[in-house]
Specification:
Elements (H helix, E strand, L loop, with lengths): L1 E5 L9 E7 L6 E2 L4 E6 L4 E5 L2 E8 L6 E3 L3 E11 L8 E2 L23 H10 L11 H16 L2 E9 L1 H8 L7 H15 L5 E4 L2 E4 L5 E7 L2 E7 L7 H16 L13 E5 L18 E5 L3 E7 L2 E15 L5 H15 L3
Parallel strand pairs: 13-15, 15-16
Antiparallel strand pairs: 1-8, 2-4, 2-7, 3-6, 4-5, 6-8, 9-13, 10-18, 11-12, 13-14, 16-18, 17-18
Helix pairs in contact: 4-5, 4-6
Length: about 350
């Protein structure tokens, strides 16, 4: 039977993904888990594995084509067996991943009066039993810190939206792709210069400086949540910030222990725009006093000079520690970030 090969969701911040190379020729044999083609995203170039076994009968996208997630790009003629596509080893900005509950499903014993087909139909319909998931050291640390933060830090949240047209125009002017996170890290760094109290923490009934001007970028890397600190992003150009994030991701994936060392930051940014999330509220990463949650950029109605127009916009949500920052000060900081991002 013919099996459609579709472009999987690679966890990028782009609506389209560039196909760069087919690794198996048309008419060639392909097995499950075998690298089938290469793609280029806004974060890395990677191999994508086949989830079907058989003969590559036809390709519907050529190297250099921009392909959307879910688009059929090839046909494999196989025996009908296939497995869900495995996501490649790629990173994206994300919040703390949810952990499934270890619920055991106990199938009901079949009735003696049921026939052969009824018994087999029950076997198909019964969900497989789920097992408890052992957390790694990094995941246990994240779970403990997030629980502590939610229970002990008095969170309050502020939300606003921004006009992303200028940011999109600036990004299109670069010869190479610049990570969206670079724009938000740079804007947050410049806003910190105007609102220095955002870089303090609450400790023993005092407000203590963090001793750092870094902005952390939250990265979900193969199920582990990592924060990449970018030192003084307000003084750096976008290309440098983007390269620092990319290099840190590559070092973590390569197993460099220094890349996983916890380094202090003033605040963290968490970007779920790639996940088609319009807005969300993030949990503060202690001992920081705030975290910025970034939703997707999408066309939205806006009012300009009394007229309703369609404009590319995004939603920002700031979570702040009320022991350190009051609402008015946090609102000024959030507005300063928007002003930086909306600059032409």
């Amino acid at each position: 039977m013919d099996i459609e090969i579709r472009m999987p969701d690679l966890g990028t911040t782009e609506a389209e993904i560039k196909l760069t190379q087919w690794l198996v020729p048309v008419g060639g044999q392909v097995s499950r888990g075998q690298p089938l083609f290469k793609v280029e995203t806004d974060k890395a170039e990677m191999d994508v594995e086949s989830f079907a076994a058989g003969v590559l009968e036809a390709v519907r996208a050529q190297p250099g084509d921009a392909v959307e997630v879910g688009q059929v790009i090839a046909i494999v003629h196989g025996d009908g067996g296939s497995a869900p596509p495995a996501k490649p080893q790629e990173a994206h900005t994300a919040a703390v991943p949810a952990i499934p509950s270890p619920i055991m499903h106990t199938p009901a014993p079949p009735s003696e009066k049921k026939g052969f087909f009824a018994r087999n139909r029950e076997k198909v319909q019964q969900p497989p039993p789920q097992r408890a998931i052992d957390l790694g050291p990094a995941q246990r640390t994240v779970a403990r810190r997030m629980q502590q933060s939610w229970q002990t830090v008095p969170h309050f949240t502020l939300q606003t939206s921004l006009n992303a047209e200028a940011m999109i125009a600036r990004r299109s002017g670069f010869a190479r792709k610049i990570l969206w996170d670079a724009f938000f890290a740079q804007a947050a760094g410049k806003a910190l210069e105007r609102f220095p109290r955002m870089s303090f923490r609450f400790e023993n009934d005092k407000l203590v400086p963090q001793g750092s001007n870094a902005v952390g970028v939250a990265i979900d890397l193969e199920g582990d949540l990592c924060v990449i600190p970018i030192a003084d992003p307000g003084a750096k150009v976008l290309e440098q910030i983007s390269d620092e994030i990319t290099t840190a991701i590559e070092q973590i994936r390569a197993g460099d222990p220094k890349a996983r060392e916890v380094r202090r930051a003033c605040l963290t940014i968490s970007n779920l725009g790639v996940c088609n999330v319009e807005s969300f509220t993030a949990i503060i990463n202690p001992p920081e006093s705030c975290i910025l949650a970034i939703g997707r950029i999408s066309p939205q109605p806006a009012v300009l000079d009394g007229r309703v127009i369609i404009q590319s916009r995004a939603t920002l949500t700031l979570s702040a520690d009320h022991r350190v920052i009051n609402g008015r000060y946090a609102a000024g900081f959030l507005d300063a970030i928007v002003q930086e991002l909306e600059k032409a």
